[in-house]
């Protein structure tokens, strides 16, 4: 059985690694990996393949950064060519990026079954490109692997019930497997002279938070006023905006900006942090798995379970709310298993086998 796996962005590499490990062990599955090149910087791409021991991609499209339409269009053209050549039995996509949608659409047009890992997530904000991508991908998919019961229910509300499976979250597998390795080998905390529980980790990359100088400046001012050191692994989009706005480090003495971090360093830093401030969906979930309180710098979240459990607070972009939430941050007494047992990859492979051979 030939499976064509499509990845293109940092979160997808992290999700794909555990499933690729299972495919390597499988005598029946041949995995063909396609890297679209949506994330092309070495610090956001190559290092993850090396650290997470993901097999080298068979194809690298080197699409790069473009407008949504141009980027997705270039991917569609190349992915269709590869699918016609390889004739896969199944196309596997992850998450909610343009790579996800392009892979699902190219496969569906060629009548190749699509499997969507992390299906059923909804922010209910259709202005988000990620929300558009995940909705369209779910409606094109044959197998939908949902991380939570809520995701299954979202699909049910859209009349998607065939091929839906609650498998747990693949990121739970990744965190469980790599956290001990990260804590043993990462020296980033010592290098940056950060004391455990005396700093925050922040990430800012979404368009609504980086679209203009005023918005970004207010966010950085809020983070700078928390009263603790804030480490910011900088996203290329945010870095470009900071340069455009001519912001300087001297204006924000509490902020420590670094280049994007590898997975081991990021795991270790979040694990030992006092809290996380982020507009990333994936980091909200990782913070929960690492038992680190999170403040979400958006008006909504796909991971509502983390909010209900008391580990995540959604505050939007208001600087006063951000500062208040950070200063009142506490570690909840209870931490329940929201995202599965760390066996999601094995479960997905079993479902694929059953779907194709029964």
TrEMBL record:
GO function term, MF aspect, one: isomerase activity
Q: Which UniProt keywords apply?
A: Isomerase
Q: Tell me the Pfam families matching this sequence.
A: Epimerase_2
Q: Please name the InterPro entries in this protein's record.
A: UDP_GlcNAc_Epimerase_2_dom (IPR003331), WecB-like (IPR029767)
Q: Where is the UDP-N-acetylglucosamine 2-epimerase domain?
A: 24-352
Protein family according to the UniProt entry: Belongs to the UDP-N-acetylglucosamine 2-epimerase family.
Protein name per its UniProtKB record: UDP-N-acetyl glucosamine 2-epimerase
Q: What is the lineage of its organism?
A: Bacteria, Bacillati, Bacillota, Bacilli, Bacillales
């Amino acid at each position: 059985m030939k499976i064509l796996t499509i990845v293109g962005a940092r979160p997808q590499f992290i999700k794909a690694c555990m499933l690729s490990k299972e495919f390597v062990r499988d005598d029946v599955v041949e995995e063909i990996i396609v890297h679209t090149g949506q994330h092309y910087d070495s610090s956001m791409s190559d290092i993850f393949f090396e650290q997470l021991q993901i097999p080298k991609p068979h194809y690298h499209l080197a699409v790069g950064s473009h407008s949504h339409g141009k980027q997705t269009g270039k991917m569609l053209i190349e992915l269709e060519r590869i699918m016609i050549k390889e004739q896969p039995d199944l196309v596997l996509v992850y998450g909610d990026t343009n790579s996800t949608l392009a892979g699902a659409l190219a496969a569906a047009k060629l009548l190749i079954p699509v499997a969507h890992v992390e299906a059923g997530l909804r922010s209910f904000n259709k202005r988000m490109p990620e929300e558009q991508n995940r909705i369209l991908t779910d409606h094109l998919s044959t197998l939908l692997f949902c991380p939570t019961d809520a995701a299954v229910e979202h699909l049910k509300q859209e009349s998607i019930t065939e091929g839906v499976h609650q498998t747990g979250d693949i990121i739970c597998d990744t965190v469980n497997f790599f956290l001990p390795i990260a804590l043993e080998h990462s020296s980033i905390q010592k290098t940056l002279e950060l004391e455990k529980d005396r700093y925050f980790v922040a990430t800012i990359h979404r368009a609504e938070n980086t679209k203009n100088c005023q918005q970004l400046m207010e966010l950085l001012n809020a983070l700078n006023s928390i009263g603790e050191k804030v480490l910011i692994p900088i996203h290329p989009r945010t870095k470009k905006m900071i340069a455009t706005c001519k912001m300087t480090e001297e204006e924000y003495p509490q902020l420590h900006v670094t280049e994007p971090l590898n997975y081991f360093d990021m795991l270790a830093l979040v694990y030992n942090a006092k809290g996380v401030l982020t507009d990333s969906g994936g980091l909200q979930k990782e913070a929960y798995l690492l038992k680190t309180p999170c403040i979400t710098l958006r008006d909504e979240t796909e991971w509502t379970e983390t909010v209900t459990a008391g580990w995540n607070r959604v505050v939007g972009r208001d600087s006063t709310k951000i500062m208040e939430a950070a200063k009142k941050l506490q570690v909840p007494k209870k931490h329940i298993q929201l995202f599965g047992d760390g066996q999601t990859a094995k479960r997905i492979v079993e479902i694929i086998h059953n779907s194709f051979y029964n």
